[in-house]
Protein 1
Amino acid sequence: QVQLVESGGGLVQPGGSLRLSCVASGSIFSIYNMGWYRQAPGKQRELVADISSYGTTNYADSVKGRFTISRDNAKKSVYLQMNSLKPEDTAVYYCNTRRATLPWGQGTQVTVSS
């Protein structure tokens, strides 16, 4: 059973940056199309970025040009570089496959506030 562990969140001022990391256990990570999701209080979880097994990326309009998703298959990891953060980016961030087929990890809290 693959397990996902997210890290890298924190409190940052508007305009700041954070880099989130997600490490997956299991031996077949490289075949998964992976995604970063977020869930703000009172809102549904949404997909903000995804990356295919060979590196093709897609972004939600709300983060396009500010966030960059990447992966390192050798390290079984996927990353989310977040720049020019806004208060509306405040949420718990999770990684999962593109179709959310794995058990959810605990997520990592990102708070953007002055």
Note: Residues 56 and 94 are 19 Å apart (CA to CA).
Protein 2
Amino acid sequence: QIQLAESGGGLVQPGGSLRLSCAASGSDFDILSMGWHRQAPGKQRELVAYITHSGTTNYADSVKGRFTISKNGNTVLLQMTSLNAEDTAVYYCLLNALGQNPKWGQGIQVTVSS
């Protein structure tokens, strides 16, 4: 069974930076893609960014130029810069593996406030 461990959230001032990490572990699995979604209070969960096993990336328009997704083995990193209040949300890691149901992380809070 795949397990996801998220870290790196917290409180940051507008204009600041944070880095989120999501490490996948468990029995043998072939990662197709890993990424991050977020859900702000009263809003639907939305895609932030993802990266495929081959390194192809995709970003929401709202974060292009500010966020960078990368991977290192079974760990995906989301470097977030120029954060603003609209980035405040619970961020969820999502892993898609071959032949398995999508796996969500438990979520990590990111708060942008002065």
Note: The radius of gyration is 14 Å.
